[in-house]
Write a structure and sequence with these properties.
Number of domains: 1
Strand content: under 5%
Shape: globular
Length: 338
């Protein structure tokens, strides 16, 4: 009797959507915890924050640059009008440079540098928490999007939460602390990523192509420049003395995980759940990363961080509620399509 093999069943869209959501939240949460554990000087990590940024860009480039070159080749073979940058970015030079500067280069440098000064608890509130604030303000300014009263209330809650965390750190600067500097870097990093997000929305960029573009810009600018500065001793670096396993781990997690995998799973999550429900799911990241910072990193949970976390999460949910109302309002849809 001949053996018959059943074809493996394909996962349903629901299963793919749920799996993508779980992976995205886990990677985003782990990013905050691992970045703090790696960049905190008190923990004696072998790499500096800019070294970790190098590993992130290098790891992502190993996958995305060949992918970008393939997409450029395919576009040209099909006779499609393709404006590429350096033959590895499937987007035009202007968009690649602009989006890559904010989303690929500056964000990584600012975010990882912030972890050298401020705890992961602060990053939980200020990095993903302030992103909706900056994105909404930039969209209102550059894209002329209307801010509804409900969304304005959400932004006010986020701002108040940020002030409770970052504002108190700034006041303690007079006592000689440097946590405020990390908080400022986190807020600046969130502003850079919000700028990239608005550029993606404004130019209606494909998520995969945009991710390839910002990685290609960062790889072809930051990697050679930072290598030269590290070799000549202009910047303090441990790239050429750190253990190989530490370099590989950062390249795999920060590059393949935080950039490539989470970029794909986030896109899949939006395809299934939609942007509004996806935002509700990612609102879990500040709370989960804060709990992880207490459990795994031993960070003290002060009252202002708890209050800031609650306010920021509530603000995000208010923003989601406003977006839901707009999506269900025919008048809003008519104005948007006009």
């Amino acid at each position: 009797m001949p053996f018959t093999f059943d074809r493996p069943r394909r996962l349903s869209p629901r299963a793919i959507g749920i799996a993508s959501a779980v992976i995205t939240v886990l990677i985003w949460t782990s990013f905050i915890l691992i970045a703090r554990a790696s960049a905190d000087p008190a923990r004696g990590g072998p790499l500096t924050p800019l070294d970790i940024a190098f590993c992130r860009i290098f790891g992502a480039a190993l996958i995305l640059l060949p992918w970008g070159a393939y997409l450029v080749h395919q576009d040209r073979a099909r006779g499609l009008p393709s404006a590429s940058w350096m033959g590895v970015s499937p987007l035009s030079r202007r968009i690649t440079v602009l989006a890559g500067f904010f989303g690929g280069l500056l964000y990584a440098m600012l975010a990882y540098s912030g972890f050298a000064y401020a705890p992961a608890l602060h990053a939980s509130v200020l990095l993903p928490g302030s992103l909706p604030l900056w994105t909404t303000l930039l969209a209102a300014w550059l894209l002329r999007e209307h801010i509804t009263p409900v969304r304005a209330l959400g932004l006010a809650l986020i701002l108040l939460g940020d002030l409770l965390v970052g504002g108190l750190s700034l006041l303690r600067a007079f006592e000689g602390g440097q946590v405020w500097l990390g908080d400022l870097l986190f807020m600046s990093g969130a502003l850079c990523w919000a700028t990239y997000s608005v550029l993606v929305r404004h130019h209606r960029l494909d998520a995969v192509r945009a991710t390839i573009a910002i990685t290609s810009f960062a790889a072809l600018t930051y990697l050679p420049m930072y290598s030269a500065l590290a070799l000549t001793g202009v910047v303090q670096s441990h790239l050429f003395t750190a253990p190989l396993q530490d370099l590989l781990f950062q390249a795999l997690f920060q590059g393949w995980g935080s950039v490539v995998i989470s970029g794909i799973t986030f896109t899949q999550m939006i395809r299934y759940f939609g942007p509004v429900r996806s935002t509700m799911i990612t609102a879990l990241v500040p709370g989960l990363s804060a709990i992880g910072a207490v459990l795994f990193l031993g960070e003290p949970l002060h009252w202002n961080v708890v209050a800031g976390l609650v306010l920021v999460t509530a603000g995000i949910l208010f923003g989601v509620r406003a977006a839901t109302r707009n999506a269900a309002n025919p008048a809003v849809l008519q104005r948007a399509s006009a």
